[in-house]
């Protein structure tokens, strides 16, 4: 025989109840031998509790009671007896202004009785022979009203007795949740207790299986309402299920598993609304790899008792728990430092004040002697329990939490079993859950990108991200989402990731914003693993960097400003990064996508002594001088072609003045811990003096005024030499004072490394002590939107990999 237990939500009016009846009918027609255990329907138990509270407070409860009746009568069956009893009880409570747990149990029991009676009636309507069974006749309990303990021997006897007399082929529809004392008083078995009832009946009747029909597909790695990536767990051992139940998996009542273990009865968690799904099977087999799941308990308060005088004192803990037990306050997680300076533990939010008072009373004299300094409450905390987590690998989820600015208030690992519980503020609970889940299941790790700037580089990056997204998900298990795209005044947001279609309608869908708005948005949606990308050309955007870092963002930037303003800011930024354990990558600052900065960083970090860095840093100027040197045309003509092809800035003087090369050189110098300022760089300006001021139009009209000077320079070269505009970091690089930063036009042999550069390529020669006269050479396309965007993309991936 199989026991089928149906929960409240499955039995709600309409779709739920209809589906349940169909399931039962189908099983019967297939010749299955089944017994039903049912909960109260829909929200019945909560509704009864609410009416009870109203009655006790002397509020008008009658309309609510009428609603309640109407709901129960929806299938044209009346319940005069139960309704009359409820009316009488509520009236009494209303008159007294109070109620006992005994009265409460009597009231709540009606929900299950009505439910079982209705289902019996509806099955009969479908010509299924069935009988209503009031479990108070079968389950005998103690008189701990509200959470009664079933007396198993006598209950087993009664149950077996009853069933031995039950005609074959009759379906018993048993009330869950309720029992009675030996004196015949009604008791209940605790919230969600129908699961426990069902397990007991399965045990007493030697059922072959207990099927628990719920409104979810089974037990998940985490609550799927909270964690989109949660996956169903197909098999669980009793042991594992029990741990989950203890840690708040509400579909498992904490006591459910025990009666099943005794007789080795499998428990299947099924979804009424998706009955074809195999659900989760809980049985005696232990899976090899062990199961891991996250469960959550909300609504707790953390109580902290502090005092330096507690050190070495005997009996402090005993006094704490005695004082709490005295007030009937249950304590869940406890943590005490070995220094015994304080102890922290969790109680329910409702018990928090009472717990504080209890401790203040108990330790009154210790306050006087200053042995105890404070009892404080941190309300609204939640517990995430990682069931199946051993301490040896806990650093991974822990680090991920810290990276995401979730600082656990308390951590506790169970002495037996592999469980770690982490207490966090309620408002961080969902984010924390997702972070831990992503980390330990590596189903996919969500990374949330905020992209500032949608010019050529930003736009290209977004396009590349859309294209590569799926591939990165399958290959790297990383789900990259662009949750915000912003230009200087408007932003397009989507917490699930901006879609390509949305992005195409940026103008229409975007709204004005401030940085605060954006940060609030990320907090509201509990977005983890945040990366801000600065793809702007803005001189002022760096003012936002620090705020972004402090609000949990890692940074990737193609913008050189942050690294080239004062050394003071440079240092400060790095300090804030360190304090917040955040990263800042900017590989594209120099040589676009070429792996230059990373290489220099690694060399420097590994202790390799870099003695000189020299090269062609600007793609634009590389193009100009490569072509000018190779051909017989005036300088202005080459310049004109460069302008027409879009190789230069809108005002070409920004390239020709050399400052951009200067900035790149400065960034490399600072990588070597040199503290130079921009002003210390000697930069040769390529623009003739008289053209340096004035409008762009005017400048563009007078390009041929470059020609004389550059013809002379070209002619004065030694044979087989070519012109190159280079950045050169040299001198003694051990200190800022002795280092030299030069940006200048030079003439080099045609067959040298610099002389051989073609097109608009960049080249960087890194000289180090071990490599001697043979520098490490990094060469390639050092400019352009596509390679720069690709470089930013690389930084994003690098950042994610380093983070984990
Ligand atoms: N009806 C009770 C409750 O809601 C028992 C149950 O559903 O298992 O707690
Ligand atoms: Mg229920």
How would you summarize the topology of this molecule?
Elements: E1 2-6, H1 15-29, E2 34-38, H2 44-56, H3 62-72, H4 80-96, H5 101-125, E3 130-133, H6 152-165, E4 171-175, E5 178-180, E6 186-188, H7 194-204, E7 209-214, E8 235-237, H8 238-246, H9 257-263, E9 267-271, E10 280-283, E11 293-306, H10 316-326, E12 334-336, E13 342-348, H11 352-362, H12 364-368, E14 374-387, H13 395-403, E15 410-413, E16 419-425, H14 429-441, E17 445-452, H15 456-476, E18 478-486, E19 490-493, H16 500-504, H17 506-509, E20 511-512, H18 515-524, E21 530-534, H19 545-550, E22 553-557, H20 561-564, H21 567-579, E23 584-585, H22 597-605, E24 610-616, H23 619-630, H24 635-644, H25 653-656, H26 659-671, E25 682-683, H27 696-701, H28 707-715, E26 721-731, E27 739-749, E28 761-768, E29 776-781, H29 785-803
Parallel strand pairs: 1-2, 1-7, 2-4, 3-4, 7-9, 8-10, 17-18, 17-21, 21-22, 22-23, 25-27
Antiparallel strand pairs: 5-6, 9-10, 11-13, 11-14, 12-13, 14-16, 15-16, 18-19, 19-20, 24-26, 24-28, 26-27, 28-29
Helix pairs in contact: 2-3, 2-4, 2-5, 4-5, 6-7, 7-9, 8-9, 10-11, 13-14, 15-29, 23-24
The protein binds aspartic acid (ASP) and magnesium ion.
Magnesium ion binds at residues 7-8, 39, 192.
């Amino acid at each position: 025989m199989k026991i089928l237990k149906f929960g409240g939500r499955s039995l709600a009016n309409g779709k739920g109840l209809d589906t349940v009846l169909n399931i039962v009918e189908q099983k019967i027609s297939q010749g299955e031998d089944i017994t039903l255990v049912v909960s109260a329907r829909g929200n019945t138990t909560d509704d009864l509790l609410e009416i009870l509270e109203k009655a006790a407070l002397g509020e008008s409860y009658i309309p609510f009671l009428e609603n309640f009746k109407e709901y129960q009568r929806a299938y044209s069956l009346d319940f005069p007896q139960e309704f009359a009893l409820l009316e009488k009880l509520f009236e009494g409570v209303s008159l007294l202004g109070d109620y006992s747990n005994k009265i409460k149990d009597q009231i709540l029991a009606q929900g299950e009785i009505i439910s079982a009676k209705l289902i019996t009636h509806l099955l009969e309507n479908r010509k299924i022979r069935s009988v209503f069974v009031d479990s108070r006749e079968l389950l005998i309990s103690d008189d701990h009203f509200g959470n009664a303990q079933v007396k198993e021997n006598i209950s087993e006897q009664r149950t077996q007795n009853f069933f031995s007399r039950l005609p074959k082929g009759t379906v018993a529809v048993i009330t869950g949740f309720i029992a009675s004392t030996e004196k015949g008083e009604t008791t209940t078995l605790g919230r969600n207790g129908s699961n426990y009832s069902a397990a007991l009946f399965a045990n007493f009747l030697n059922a072959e299986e207990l099927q628990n029909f719920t409104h979810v597909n089974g037990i998940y790695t985490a609550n799927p309402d909270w964690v989109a990536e949660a996956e169903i767990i197909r098999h669980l051992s009793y042991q594992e299920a029990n741990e989950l139940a203890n840690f708040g998996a509400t579909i498992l009542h904490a006591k459910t598993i025990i009666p099943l273990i005794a007789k080795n009865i499998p428990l299947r968690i099924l979804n009424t609304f998706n009955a074809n799904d195999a659900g989760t099977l809980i049985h005696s087999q232990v899976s090899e790899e062990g199961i891991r799941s996250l469960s959550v308990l909300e609504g707790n308060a953390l109580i902290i008792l502090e005092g330096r005088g507690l050190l070495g004192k005997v009996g402090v803990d005993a006094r704490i728990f005695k004082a709490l037990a005295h007030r009937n306050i249950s304590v869940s997680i406890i943590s005490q430092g070995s220094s015994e300076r304080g102890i922290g533990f969790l109680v329910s939010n409702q018990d928090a004040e009472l717990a504080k008072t209890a401790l203040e009373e108990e330790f009154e004299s210790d306050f006087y002697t200053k042995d105890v300094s404070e009892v404080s409450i941190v309300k609204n905390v939640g517990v995430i329990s990682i069931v199946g987590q051993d301490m040896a690998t806990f650093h991974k989820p822990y680090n991920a939490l810290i990276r995401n600015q979730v600082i656990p208030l308390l951590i506790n690992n169970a002495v037996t079993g592999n469980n770690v519980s982490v207490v966090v503020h309620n408002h961080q609970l969902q984010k924390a859950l997702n972070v831990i889940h992503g980390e330990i299941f590596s189903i996919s790790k969500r990374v949330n990108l905020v992209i500032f700037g949608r010019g050529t580089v930003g736009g290209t990056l977004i396009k590349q991200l859309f294209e590569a997204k799926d591939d990165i998900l399958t290959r790297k298990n990383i789900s990259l989402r662009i949750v915000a795209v912003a230009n200087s005044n408007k932003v397009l947001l989507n917490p699930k990731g901006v879609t390509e279609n949305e992005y195409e309608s940026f103008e229409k869908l975007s709204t004005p914003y401030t940085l605060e708005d954006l940060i609030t948005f990320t907090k509201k949606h509990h977005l983890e693993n945040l990366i801000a990308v600065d793809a702007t050309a803005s001189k002022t955007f760096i003012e936002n960097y620090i705020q972004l870092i402090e609000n949990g963002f890692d940074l990737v930037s193609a913008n050189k400003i942050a690294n080239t303003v004062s050394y003071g800011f440079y240092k400060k930024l790095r300090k804030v990064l360190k304090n917040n354990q955040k990263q800042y990558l900017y590989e594209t600052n120099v040589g676009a996508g070429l792996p230059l900065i990373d290489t220099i960083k690694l060399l420097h970090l590994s202790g390799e002594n870099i003695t000189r860095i020299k090269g062609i840093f600007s793609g634009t100027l590389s193009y100009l001088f490569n072509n000018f040197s190779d051909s017989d045309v005036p300088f202005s003509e080459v310049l004109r072609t460069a302008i027409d092809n879009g190789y230069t800035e809108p005002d070409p003087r920004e390239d020709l003045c050399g400052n951009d090369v200067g900035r790149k050189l400065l960034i490399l110098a600072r990588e070597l811990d040199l503290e130079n300022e921009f002003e210390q760089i000697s930069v040769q300006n390529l623009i003739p003096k008289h053209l340096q001021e004035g409008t762009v139009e005017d400048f563009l009209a007078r390009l041929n005024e470059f020609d004389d000077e550059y013809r002379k320079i070209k002619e004065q070269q030694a044979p087989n030499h070519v012109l190159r505009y280079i950045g050169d970091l040299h001198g003694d690089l051990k200190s800022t004072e002795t280092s030299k930063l030069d940006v200048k036009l030079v003439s080099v042999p045609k067959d040298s490394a610099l002389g051989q550069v073609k097109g608009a390529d960049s080249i960087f020669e890194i000289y180090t002590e071990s490599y001697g006269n043979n520098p490490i050479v990094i060469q390639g396309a050092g400019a352009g939107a596509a390679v720069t965007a690709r470089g930013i993309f690389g930084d994003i991936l690098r950042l994610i990999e380093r983070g984990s």
